[in-house]
Amino acid sequence: MLSQLLPMFAVTFSVFLLFFIFMGIGYMVKKKPLRGSCGGVAKLMGNEKCSYCGDDPNKCDSIVAEQQELSLKAAALGKPL
């Protein structure tokens, strides 16, 4: 039984490790908080303050809106972001 469990544990651990590594690289490249950090479980528990957005839950939405505006302007000029 242990001979079947050990390879399964090694594969599972490796997959989780890869996910954490790629999430870390993605955060370092984009320098943005993970999506869904404002709201979600914290909102269900009664904590409506968002530490990632500077205690302003609308700030994440405004940042996304600004980025969309910039991408539209860049597309109008024919320049990639």
Automatic annotation (TrEMBL):
Q: Which UniProt keywords apply?
A: Membrane, Transmembrane, Transmembrane helix
Does the keyword Membrane feature in the UniProt annotation? Answer: yes
Q: From which domain of life does this come?
A: Bacteria
List residues traversing the bilayer: 6-29
Q: What is this protein called?
A: (Na+)-NQR maturation NqrM
Q: Which organism is it from?
A: Psychrobacter urativorans
